[in-house]
Amino acid sequence: MVMDGIDLQKLQTVLGIEWKEPKHLLQAVTHSSFAHENKALNLENNQRLEFLGDAVLELAVSDYLYRRFADYPEGTLTKIRAGIVCEPSLAHVAGSMDLGEYLLMGKGEERSGGRERPSILADAMEAIIGAVYIDQGMEKSFSFIIEKLEDIIEKVISNGGLHTDYKTHLQELVQKKSDNPLNYRIIEEYGPDHSKTFVAGVDYQGELWGSGTGRTKKEAEQAAAKDALGKINGGILKFQAGDENE
């Protein structure tokens, strides 16, 4: 579907969603300025979906953090969530997929730089989330949210001092002694879409050095690196400089 020069079919591909009702996506990208300037089209703007998406986003992130950090108190979980569910984070995610290019926007709003304005991008991202929820249901919308915000989640956790970067530590250790690369791979995944568990492995020279589980692929890779470091520090893995056959 092409609307006012906006290729919504391409946006579907970018989002990775096969919409049951494309009208939900159309509403999600319709800024109030466009609906006002084109009243004859009788389009509903995205503000109601934005309202819904805000609530779905907060619930999805709360559910994710609650399950991932079983020992964290409410205050810590609230702090982490606040860093994830905020305008800068949502605007960044929207910008990473060029969401601004797909918005139906009034001419005046567009001339004033609306397609790059963080507040508009963040609102549009919430509207997309609301549309996914309406069109695909809770499970798919939760999966969509965690997938799109995964990098933001890890960054917020890391900046809050709540996360040790085991992958970097392991990489630095290997680089001191060898030019051979580490390889991470997903060994297994299970569970429903909104609450998947991933099992990752880290290989060196074709040998499985460590494995671990996580709610995201990156979390599982961190757990695998931690496992490998524990084996090296415990003497289970013998890693000598210049040994190319470990």
Structure description:
- Strand 3 (182-190) and strand 4 (197-204) form a beta hairpin.
- By secondary structure, this protein is mostly helical.
- It contains eleven helices and five strands; from the N terminus they run ββααααααααααβββα.
- The protein folds into two domains: 2-159, Ribonuclease iii, N-terminal Endonuclease Domain, Chain A; 166-233, Double Stranded RNA Binding Domain.
- The radius of gyration is 22 Å and the shape is elongated.
- The chain starts with a strand and ends in a 13-residue tail after the last helix.
- It has a three-stranded antiparallel β-sheet, covered by helices on one side. A two-stranded antiparallel sheet has the order 1-2.
- 56% of the residues lie in helices and 12% in strands.
- It has helices spanning 8-15, 22-28, 32-37, 47-68, 74-84, 87-96, 107-111, 118-136, 138-159, 166-175, 217-233; strands at residues 2-3, 6-7, 182-190, 197-204, 207-214.
- Helix 2 (22-28) runs antiparallel to helix 8 (118-136) and helix 4 packs across helix 8 (118-136).
Write the layout of secondary structure elements.
Blueprint lengths: L1 E2 L2 E2 H8 L6 H7 L3 H6 L9 H22 L5 H11 L2 H10 L10 H5 L6 H19 L1 H22 L6 H10 L6 E9 L6 E8 L2 E8 L2 H17 L13
Antiparallel strand pairs: 1-2, 3-4, 4-5
Indicate the structural class. Answer: mainly alpha
- Count the DSSP helices: 11
Output the radius of gyration: 22 Å
Q: How are helices and strands ordered from N to C?
A: EEHHHHHHHHHHEEEH
Helix content: 55-70%
Low-confidence stretches: 241-246
Spatial order of the strands forming the largest sheet:
3-4-5
Proportion of beta-strand residues? 5-15%
Largest sheet: 3 strands, antiparallel
What is the CATH homology-level superfamily of the largest domain?
Ribonuclease III domain
**Total tally of structural domains:** 2
CATH architecture of the largest domain: Orthogonal Bundle
